[in-house]
Amino acid sequence: MFDIYTIIFLALAVFIFLRLRSVLGQRTGRERPPYDPYSSARDAMRPSPGDKVVALPGRAPDTQKSSEPAEPADRWKGVAEPGSTLAVGLDAIVREDKTFDPKHFVTGARAAYDMIVTAYAAGDRRQLKNLLGKDVYDGFDAAIKDRESRGETVETRFVSIDGANLIGAEMRGKTAQVTVRFQSQLVSVTRDKAGNVIDGNPDKVTDVTDVWTFARDASSRDPNWKLVATEAGQ
Question: For residues 214 and 177, is the Cβ–Cβ distance under 8 A?
């Protein structure tokens, strides 16, 4: 028989799941862990350039009329400049997924960014599995295991997320990909198994810029997006 604490926990779990449904999807790729200022190998994996990008539909011949209304020039106002590569990419995604809303996506991506960075620092594999594709998760898991083998722990605390801006969008086959540049301030420190600080400063705020790419199969009924690539931004 459920007690009151079990009911509260289940309600919280359902809320978090629904909050993330519009943000997170499926694709493979091996990535570096989220912000780790103490790693000497911060290699980034981008989606394979060999993947075929779906060509945007051309203009219908003069003898035919398009059944779809013309897209307004200010369709992506506040998100992308008219005619820009980003705007064209967003148009392509919406053609495949009519429910896609970039502003709503950014809101969810900010939440996912916070949760992924925090889960990585805490070594919370269960949380990461819900937010990452399999191969990406495997890369994160390997980094956590390496840290654990040395008895090290990482403490990360966000001070603020100052920016989350879309900088890329495209269709690769049936996979929609959206890239976000995050600008944040955080405190991060690594301690050895004795609790001594070996990297970072628990009293120092660090400015961080990360570029993350999320993806989902637009032909799938699964609405979830997942992280497929990360890199340190400029």
Answer: yes
